Amino acid sequence: MKLLGIIKMKYEGEKDYKHGSKENLGVLITNLGTPDKPETKELRKYLKEFLSDPRVIETPKLLWQLVLRGIILNLRPKKVARLYKSIWKKKGGPLLIMLEKQKKGIIKIFKKKKKNIKIEIGMRYGNPNIKLGLEKLRKQKCRRILILPLYPQYCAATTGSTFDKVTEVLRKWRWIPEVRFINNYFEEPLYIDCLIKSIKDNWKKFGKPQKLIFSYHGVPKKYLLKGDPYHCFCQKTTRLVAEKMKLKEKEYITTFQSRFGPDEWLQPYTDKTLERLPSKDITKIHIISPGFSSDCLETLEELEVQNKEIFISSGGEKFNYIKCLNDDPQHLNMLALLILNHMKGWPGHSK
Asked: Phi and psi (nearest 5°) for 131?
C-alpha cells in the first residue's frame, strides 16, 4: 500500500487538466527570503536552508555540513536574530512586507491597463516559498508562467538558485506549464532611470556628496574566476548610471559588502573603503545599493547602521544611505513594463 501511495504521489496535480477550462497568464515574483520570526530558533531554521544551498556555498557538501551544523548553526543564529529584531516590523520582516506591496502595486498597474495577469510571490528561502507561489498560480489555471527574480544583476547564488528551485517544483507536476524566466534587468533603461531619480532626489534633499558609493552584495572571488558574470554586471550598472548622470570618475566608486567566511571576496570591500575615505579628505558620502530591489537586513542594518558607524568613527562627517527602489511608483511601473515585454508573443497577451 505504501508503494502504491508513492507511485500515486509521484506527479502532483493529477487533476490539472479539464477539457474546455480557461487558461491564464501568471507571474511569480521572487526574492531571497526572510525568517518567520526574529528569534534564534527561526534563524537557525532559515540559515540552515539558506547555507545548505550548493549555489550559495560551493564547498564539498559533506565537509560544509560538518562546519555548518557543528559550528555556524550553533553560533550565528543568536547574533543574526538580534540584528533582525532591530529592523523587524509588526507585520513581519521588511523584505516580505515590501514584496507584498510590490505585488499589490503591480496588480494595480495591470488593472489600469486592463491586463488579466495573475501574480503571486515566493521566497527562495523561508516563507511564503516558491512552491506555494507556483501552486497558487496553478490553482488559477495559469498555463503560462513568467518567473521574475528581483535581482537586477544575474548571479548563480541568487538568480541561478531561483531557477533551480522553480524547476525542482515543476518537475513534480504532471502538466508542466510554459515557462519564461527573467535572467536579469540591470541594462533596462527604465531601471537605470529609477536609480538616477533616487540619487537626484537625495541630492536635492541632502546636497551633493564628495563621493557616491555603489555598494553591491559580495560573493567569493572564486565565483568570478569560475565564470559567474555578476561582478561584471555590477560594474556595468554603475557605469550606466555614471554615464547618464555625467559623473566624473573621481565622484563615484563601486564596492562590495556582506562578506562571510575566510575566502577572498569581490573587492574593494565596502566597510574597508568607508574606513579609508576620511584619511583621503572624503568626509561627505552617499551610498546606494543597486543590487537590492528592496531594503532588507543588508541595507537597513549593515549599510545604514554598521557602515555608517565605521565611516563616522573614522573621521567621516556626513553619511547618507539612499533607500532601495522598493515600492516607488516609477520602480513598480518599470517592473510592470518588464513583465509585459517578456510576455510578448504569448497567446492571451496583447501589446
From this structure: -60, -45
Query: What CATH number is associated with residue 205?
Result: 3.40.50.1400
- Judge if 194 and 177 occupy the same domain: no
Enumerate the β-bridge partners of residue 12.
173
Q: Assess whether 32 and 153 both reside in one domain.
A: yes
Counting residues of the chain whose pLDDT is more than 70, the rounded percentage is 93
pTM for the predicted model, two decimal places: 0.93
User: 30, 122 in Cβ contact below 8 A?
Assistant: yes
Please give the backbone phi and psi of residue 9, each rounded to the nearest 5 degrees, phi first.
-95, 0
Residue 235 domain flag: yes
User: Residue 80 belongs to what domain range?
Assistant: 23-185+331-342
Tell me the per-residue pLDDT of 128-186, one tens digit each, with 9 for 90 and over: 999 999 999 999 999 999 999 999 999 999 999 999 999 999 999 999 999 999 999 99
Which residue carries 513598480 as its cell? 332
Q: Which candidate, 72, 40, 41, 75, places its Cα nearest to that of 56?
A: 72
Residues 128, 161, single domain; the answer is yes
- Grid cell in block for residue 315: 573621521
* Distance from C-alpha of 197 to C-alpha of 214, rounded to nearest angstrom: 15
pLDDT band at 262 (very low <50, low <70, confident <90, very high): confident
Residue 95, H or E segment: helix 94-112
Reported as a single tens digit per residue, the pLDDT across 71-101 is 999 999 999 999 999 999 999 999 999 999 9
Q: Are residues 77 and 214 in the same domain?
A: no
Which residues pair with residue 25 across a beta bridge?
A: 117, 144
In a domain, 14, yes or no: no
Number of independent structural domains in the chain: 2
Same domain, 94 and 200: no
CA separation for the pair 92, 88 (Å, rounded): 6
